[in-house]
Automatic annotation (TrEMBL):
GO molecular function: D-cysteine desulfhydrase activity
Residues bearing the modification N6-(pyridoxal phosphate)lysine: K42
Lineage summary: Bacteria, Pseudomonadati, Pseudomonadota, Gammaproteobacteria, Alteromonadales
Cofactor field: pyridoxal 5'-phosphate
Name of the protein: 1-aminocyclopropane-1-carboxylate deaminase
Residue ranges annotated for the Tryptophan synthase beta chain-like PALP domain, each copy included: 17-286
Keywords: Pyridoxal phosphate
């Protein structure tokens, strides 16, 4: 299976008086430009999962997601592009067919299976997964968010594609992107993960479970104070920052993942938490389709 015909995504240098004053070089890895629909870390995670699916001669894929999930959106497009039938266990219990993410998935001809929130909580349970294997015997199962060992290979490639830097920053939801980056980044680069949900200290364990070698590494840290109120929540000041970055720097952001990371990073620069002459690369992990969902819910 040919998994990509796209060139590597570009690096955008941000020019701003604050950065000049602090003597900081800030670049953004624009993985949101990898593909119009299968973009960012979702493509990085899906790439080797789809290769494994073909190698195992699975006839379809099965995965999990919320009704506004970036993973659902990206995997639906991948299903269409590569002609792989797909089944989604969707946190429900009902599907809102006016939801733009659900409408897109339906247009891609994927099969949506809404379940109660109680059932959805079993998505990591071994016995529940065995039941799904019996129900969908030819399916290749990809976990929620796409984070597994196959995903790490794609995120490792992302790190290896970057020029040298002192700091590398990314948003953290499930830990898969960060775990993969740690496999490919130079040990002298400090990796900063910005947790997008509350009470996220457990993510350290998620990262080391996915990538046990991270236990021995001292060049990474998950920052838990920039969640903006919790997953899916954001302040007016955060949204204003996102709009300013788009207007002044042509950098589109959403306030759920990359926007939180960039806003947190900006505050750290203002507070002199980086030495002068630091080279910082921030990874834009995509997810811009989420803006349609926020508009649909009248949150922006």
């Amino acid at each position: 299976m040919k998994t990509s015909s796209h060139l590597e995504s570009p690096l955008q240098t941000i020019k701003h008086p604050l950065l000049t004053a602090k003597k900081i070089q800030l670049q953004v890895k624009r993985d949101d430009l990898l593909h119009p629909s299968v973009q960012g870390n979702k493509w990085r995670k899906l790439k080797y999962n789809l290769i494994a699916l073909k190698r195992q001669q699975s006839q379809c894929l099965l995965t999990f997601g919320g009704a506004f999930s970036n993973h659902l959106y990206a995997t639906a497009m991948a299903s269409k592009l590569f002609h792989i039938p797909a089944h989604f266990i969707v946190r429900g219990p009902h599907l809102d067919l006016s939801n733009p993410t659900i409408r897109f998935a339906k247009a891609c001809k994927v099969n949506l299976h809404p379940v109660t929130r109680i059932e959805y909580r079993q998505r990591h349970d071994v016995h529940y997964l065995e039941q799904l294997k019996h129900q969908f015997p030819s399916a290749f199962i990809i976990p929620e968010g796409g984070s597994n060992q196959f995903a790490l290979q794609g995120c490792k490639e992302l790190a290896q594609s970057l020029p040298p830097s002192d700091y590398l920053c990314c948003a953290v939801g499930s830990g898969g992107t960060l775990a993969g980056i740690l496999q490919g980044v130079h040990k002298t680069t400090k990796v900063l993960g910005f947790a997008v949900l509350k009470n996220a200290e457990y993510l350290n364990g998620e990262v080391t479970t996915l990538n046990p070698s991270a236990l021995e590494l001292t060049n990474w840290q998950i920052l838990t104070e920039f969640h903006g109120g919790g997953y899916g929540k954001f302040s007016t000041s955060l949204w204003d920052f996102c709009q300013t970055m788009k207007r002044d720097h042509h950098l589109p952001l959403e306030p759920i993942y990359t926007g939180k990371m960039m806003y947190g990073l900006w505050q750290m620069i203002e507070q002199d938490q980086f030495p002068q002459h630091s080279r910082i690369i921030a990874i834009h992990t995509g997810g811009l389709q989420g803006l349609d969902g926020l508009r649909y819910r009248r949150l922006i």
